[in-house]
C-alpha cells in the first residue's frame, strides 16, 4: 500500500515538473497565423493564411521559399521591400536571425558598406508588390481564386 502511494506521488511529481518545464521553455516552432492583414497603398488585404494551407492544398514551401525546415519563417518584406531605397540599405541586415540568409542575395556575408559593383542586382529581386501579385495571382489563375484586372477588390478593401 505504502509503496503504491509512493509510486503515484512520484508520477504526479514528474508530471508536474514536466508541465512546469514545458511551460517555461519557449515554444520552438513559430505559430502559424490563421489570418494575416497586409496593409498597403492598394488597400488592406485580409489573407486567409491557414485556409490556404489546410483547405486549398498549398504547401508551406509554395509561398515560403525561404526560412523552411527548422529555420524561422521570415517575413516576405525582409527581402521584398516596397522599394530598394536608402532605408532598405540601412535596415535590412537587421531583419535576419542568421547570416545564411545573406547568401540568398550576396556572394558572401558583407561586413561593411559595399562598392557599387558588389551590390546585388535589384532587377532580379521582385519588390513586395510584385512578389505578392505574382505569387497570389499566379496560383489563382491555375487553381481558382481571384486574379486579373477586375479582381482587385476581391483582395483589397476599398
Ligand atoms: C498561399 C501562401 C502561403 C502558404 C501556403 C503558407 N504561408 Fe505562411 N505566410 C504567407 C504570407 C503571405 C505571410 C505574411 C508574411 C509577411 O507579412 O511578410 C505568411 C506568414 C507566416 C508566418 C509568420 C511569419 C512572420 O513573422 O511574418 C509563419 C510562421 C508562417 N507563415 C508559417 C507557415 C507555415 C508553417 C505554412 C504551412 C503549413 C505556411 N505558412 C503556409 C503565405 C503563405
Ligand atoms: C531571405 C530573403 C527572401 C525572403 C524571406 C523571401 N524572398 Fe522571395 N525572393 C528572394 C530573392 C532573392 C528572389 C529572386 C529570385 C531568387 O533568388 O529565387 C525572390 C523571388 C521571389 C518571387 C519571384 C518568383 C520566384 O518564386 O522565384 C516571388 C513571387 C517571391 N520571391 C515571393 C516571396 C514571398 C511571398 C515571400 C514570403 C512568404 C518571400 N518571397 C520571402 C528572397 C526572399
Ligand atoms: C533580399 C536580398 C538581400 C538579402 C537577403 C541581404 N541583402 Fe544586403 N543588400 C541587398 C541589396 C539589393 C543591396 C544593395 C542596395 C542598393 O543597391 O541600394 C544590399 C546592400 C548591402 C550592404 C551595403 C550597404 C551600403 O550602404 O553599401 C550591406 C553591408 C549588406 N547589404 C549587408 C547584408 C547582410 C549582413 C545581410 C544578411 C544578414 C544581407 N545584406 C542580406 C540585398 C540583400
Ligand atoms: C498555391 C496556390 C495559392 C496561392 C499561392 C495563393 N492562393 Fe489564394 N486561393 C487559392 C485557392 C485554390 C483558392 C480557392 C478558390 C475557390 O475555392 O474558389 C484561393 C482563394 C483566395 C481568396 C478568396 C477566398 C478566401 O479564402 O478569402 C482570396 C482573397 C485569396 N485566395 C487571396 C490570396 C492572397 C492574398 C495570396 C497571396 C498572399 C494568395 N491567395 C495566394 C490558392 C492560392
Ligand atoms: C489575389 C489578391 C490580390 C489581387 C487580386 C490584387 N492584389 Fe494588389 N496586392 C495584394 C497583396 C497581398 C499585396 C501586398 C500587400 C503588402 O505589401 O503587404 C498587394 C499590393 C498592392 C499594391 C501596393 C504595391 C506596393 O508595392 O506597395 C497596390 C497598389 C495594389 N496591390 C494594387 C492592385 C490592383 C490595382 C489590383 C487589380 C488590378 C490588385 N492589386 C489585385 C493582393 C492582391
UniProtKB/TrEMBL annotation:
Heme c 2 binds at residue 80. One of its GO terms (molecular function) is electron transfer activity. Its cofactor is heme c. Binds 4 heme c groups covalently per monomer. InterPro entries: Cyt_c_III, Cyt_c_III_dom, Multihaem_cyt_sf. Residues 30-109 form the Class III cytochrome C domain. Heme c 1 binds at residues 49, 52, 60, 63-65, 76, 79, 102, 105-106. Keywords: Electron transport, Heme, Iron, Metal-binding, Transport. Signal peptide: none annotated. This is Class III cytochrome C family protein. It comes from Pseudodesulfovibrio hydrargyri. The lineage of its organism: Bacteria, Pseudomonadati, Thermodesulfobacteriota, Desulfovibrionia, Desulfovibrionales.
